[in-house]
Amino acid sequence: QVQLVESGGGLVQAGESLRLSCEASGRTFGSYPMGWFRQAQGKEREFVAYINKIGGWTHYLDSVEGRFTISRDNTKNLVYLQMNSLKPEDTANYYCARAKSSLGTAQAIHDMKQYDYWGQGTQVTVSS
To answer: From the first residue on, what is the mean pLDDT of each consecutive set of 10 residues in the chain (128 residues)?
Structure first.
């Protein structure tokens, strides 16, 4: 059983930055790609960012491209989401998730069904 625990959320003003962390249990962290999703109140959960197993390839939601950076440290079982230039529309509960396997298309990467383990989420609130 894999457990994912997010941290780093909080309340910030527009234009500020936050770094989210997600710590995974187990010894297989480096064998799986990881993703970040978010869910705003009253809306469906949506994909935010994806990183492959070794951290050499990433993919982002268009609206966060250039502002958010996903990274990972396989020696520490950690995946990060650096969020800069935050906007009120980034307000949401942010979840990390483990992909079942390497995903080769944007459609697959964005599909929640391709992820088998999820954290409990960390709230990010951006005030205007």
So the answer is: 96 98 94 98 98 96 98 97 98 98 93 97 98
